Amino acid sequence: MVSKEIVGSEQEMQEHLLMGLRLTNEGVSAEAFHTRFGRSLENVFSKEIDELIGLGLLEWADKKTSEVSKTSEVLRLTPRGRLLGNQVFLRFVED
């Protein structure tokens, strides 16, 4: 018997975000997220993103230069966030 899991859009957004954060150098492109899901990364996960940036675990970085800036388009783990990655990921999957 073959089982098939139907992934809801919210779960798919979570999985996309977590997979991108695991690729620590690349992070998650806000533009690619919006193109794929039709919703803003900041709007979907604003509470979690703001909290984790405040804790120094996430940062917005420029796609080309990797410089950190609030107006940048790639969300990624900070060096500290990489050390505490599992704690970061839990924030996005807890209800």
Automatic annotation (TrEMBL):
Give every HemN C-terminal domain span.
10-61
Domain of life the protein comes from: Bacteria
Q: Which SUPFAM superfamilies match?
A: Radical SAM enzymes
Q: What is this protein called?
A: HemN C-terminal domain-containing protein
Q: Which organism is it from?
A: Candidatus Desulfolinea nitratireducens
